[in-house]
Each structure stands twice: as C-alpha cells, then as structure tokens.
Amino acid sequence: MRHQRPPVSDFFPSERGTWKKDWRGRLPIGLIFPSHYGVGMSNLGFQLVYDQINSHPDLVCERIFLPEPGGRPLSVESSRSLADFPILFVALSFEQNLPDLLGMLLTAGIEPLAENRHSAKIRPGAPLIIGGGVACFINPEPLAPFVEAILVGEAEELLPPLLEKLLGASERSVLLAELVGLRGCYVPEYYDFAFAQTGVLSEITVRPGAPERVKRVALTECDQSGYSHLLSPSAEFADLFLVELGRGCSRACRFCAAGFVYRPPRLWSSAAINRALDQRPEGINRVGLLGMEMARPDDLQKVAERLLAEGCRLSFSSLRADALTPELLQLLAGSGLKTVAIAPDGGSERLRRVINKGISRDDVLQSASRLVTAGIVNLKLYFMIGLPTETEADLEEMLALIKDVREIMMAPGRSRGRLANLTLSINPMVPKPWTPLQYHPFVAPLELKKKFDFIRRGLSAIANLKVMGEKPENAYLQAVLARGDRRLAPALIEYARRGGNWQQVFRGQGVAPEQYALRPRGRDELLPWEIIDQGMEKGFLWSEYQKALEARTSPVCEVARCRRCGICGEGKL
Fold it and tell me: What is the fold of 239-337?
C-alpha cells in the first residue's frame, strides 16, 4: 500500500504554512514519530519540537510517521525518504513504539545499530540519530544501541544549544565529543554496561569526558503555555486546540512515571495560559486542557470563564474524581460534552491506598452523580489489575463500585428517556522505572487473563456496559521494554524484521522475557535507567514501595515545603 498522506487542501491554515520551506541553504532534519499520523499529530510535545526546529533560520524540519503496512516512511512535507535526511530526531513517547521505529529504519535501508553506521561523515543513508521524548528519560537503555545521542528532559531547554552544535560539525566523532558535554545530552557510546552471570547489571563504566550520570533538564519558567501549533482533520483530535495548564503532577500516584520524572510539578500562570489561548485559530472552538488534575481552582475558573465567554467547548482526557468544582461543572454543561473519564485506578479502597491515589469510593460515586446530572451521557472508568498485594476481595470491591456507579447513572437517564452508557477500561499494571513500583514484578499474562475473566463474569448481567482493555500479552511486551537494557537490541531488530510472536522471536535471540518483566528488583540492585539522574534522594522510591506493600499513604508533592524526594532540596525519608 502506498504511504498515505493527507493532501495539502485538507490541512487547516496553520498547517499549510509548513509546506513552503525548502532545503536550499538549510540543514534538513527528519522528525520521526513512530506511530500513525493521526496519533502523532495530536502529540503536543512533538509539535513543539517541530515548531522549535523550523523556527531556526538555518534548519528545515520535516515530519515522518509510521506508514501503512507495506508502505515506505516518507516525509509529510515533501514525500522524501527517511534515508534522504542526514540527521534524524526520534520522538519516543511509548516504549512499545520502539519496534515500529526499527521497522521504519529497516524499510528505509538505514542500519539500525549506531555502531554499524560506519560513515565518518554525517550524511543521508548514514544519519546521526537523536532520541527524545518521555520514554527516553524514563529509561533510555532499550533505545541506546540505535541512536548516537538521547535528550534527557524537556525540549525548550535542551534544543537551542543542541541545534547550534549540529550546524557546526559534520564529523561524527567530533560532534559526539561535543554533544557529550552538553547539559542533558546522553551519548550511549561513552558508557559501558557489564552484567553478572545472573543477568543483573553489575557495573557501569564511564569513558573520559562524560558525566557519571546525565542529569535531567526541566523547564522552570514559562511565559506562554504549550499549545497546538498544527491542526489537521486527519489527526486523532482533528479540531481540538490543546493548551497546557502545567507539567508534572503533584498527586504522587505510585504507578505513574510522569508524576516522578516531571518533578517538581509546575503550574503555569493564568497569564501564560491566556497567551496560549490567544493562539487559537479562528473557527476552532474545542479546547483541550492538559493538566486539569492539579490546576489551581482560581486559574481553572478564569480559564472556564474565558472559554464560556468565547463560546468554546471544553475537552480533556480524564478528571480526578475529587476535582469537580461548580465552575468546572458549569463549563462541562456549557460545552455540550457527552463523555467524561474518571480514573479510580485501584478497584478497592485498600488498593487506592497502595497506589497512593488519594480518592475514595465516595469521591467516585459523587462525581458520577454530578456528571450525569450535568448532562454527561457516557462515563468511562479506568482501572488497573495486577497491582501489588491485589486479591480476589479487591476485585470483588471493584465490581461493587462499578455496579454502584451504574445504579447512580440510571435515575437521571430514565428521567431524560435515555440511559447513560458506562465504559470500563481495565488494563494490566506495568511497573515503570522511576516509580515506587519499579521494584515490583509484572503479573504473568495467564494470571491476568484469570483476573479479566473474573471481572467479565461478575459484570455479565449489566446492560449498557462496555468492558475493554489492553491484552495481557501486549502489556507483557511493554513491561519487558520498560525495564529493558541494551541486550534487547538483537531481539528487537529481529522482531522488527519478522514480526510474529514476539516471545518466540525474543527467545530465539537468547532473551528471556521473564527476567525483565517478572523478576522483582531489590533495594540495592543497580538498575540500567539509573544512568539518568532525576535528582531523587537515594532510597526514596524504595521507601515508597514499602509503604505501598503496607497500604500506607504519603502526602502530595508540595514544592514550597516538601523535601521528601530530594528534588527540591535535601530530602528526609
């Protein structure tokens, strides 16, 4: 099938301008998002990087997305092959997109292993590849064999000095020697990883000129919030203008990597948010707010008042069950929003203490009642299974909560003559690096299937209910990649070439998936992703893991006075 690209005429005005810049006298950079166009174009971080590179007068950036099966990876702007670019940036938001990235390189005839791109000069066909995105600074090691450098942190701070370096050198070795000295730039070939016979990482050797660990770089001040630079009807959120309210999260849920690797949480000012809202294109009246779970009530009220006054409709991915203010409910009602998601995550009150979720059964039920009363006709609940210490009793309590929510939704529906629909998204918990649950084993797929079957049987008699979730086998692969290291490289390349059953491919390359996913980690084990310095106090995550096993909660992240994790100053556990 030929690579599908939306025609120029299908783009909104803000998108059309990206077709005018040519390569004459400019260094071309290909920006890869290893997922399909509709998903990639809705990623705010990807758009920010694209805009930042193209704002440089000596650079031109073109986007490349995952093609349709059998297609070639071609740029959106000029249909150039991936192999035509001397420099490639990779935006990796999800670990499971790594095989897709390798498949794109192989299809374009580019050697995926960085050590095999032998050309001394950086050139098309033997490009310099630089990785970035949140998956890279959660755990860069599965990507490390395939790239020359990895950006650790946020693009606004990292890109300007990097782009100047790229313009100044064409010799691969010379450029890497310069990049290794840049703040937040991880150059994998300067680090050697040694493993014991047990498979556990035993030592990391650092070559001269490189830092012992690469410190993550964060944006500290923001005059204008991040927003959608490009809108396309072919994107997943075609007519939705996205605006950041902040970055990170103060809630400290123990399973959530974003809540730890984006520390400290930062809330943008109402002035910065308004400057971003000022960029909304004419004719686009749907606004998506990112970071509503920790937004200040007064800022959220100001934003709500502005959106209502401008006739805008509100959209968002999910709400905290304890965050429904009167102003927000008014905005929801005025937006005509029909579907809202709430994430209890833990099925029982005890499990919500285990994961430090900070919401109660009553919070969930009251929110369901308020939302349905405000006109919401479709409610979605997110749950996880396979959490630490989970028992059948916890799943029974989940079923009871779901049934109570369903009952609450029925009464307003009957009065309107239209019953509300309830959707459940139930997914396996994948232990992520830099979270307290990084030490915990992933639950084996067979056991997860039993849990799914138990839940489905318990809900089989309920009408207007849809149950969905990620397949345990897919979550298993994600768990392997999340806690993976450089030794996965041969298996990943073979899987990208062959496809098929990933477990069989991995085992054929000598990789035992259970060693990565199903094995618990100890307090003093050296972990591959610790090559990144997140600024956390040694022992903080282990302390939180022990509290999880005991179902004890911790306070939220309060930047002004909290010093527990060490990122904002010397910590005390």
Answer: Transcription Regulator spoIIAA (3.30.750)
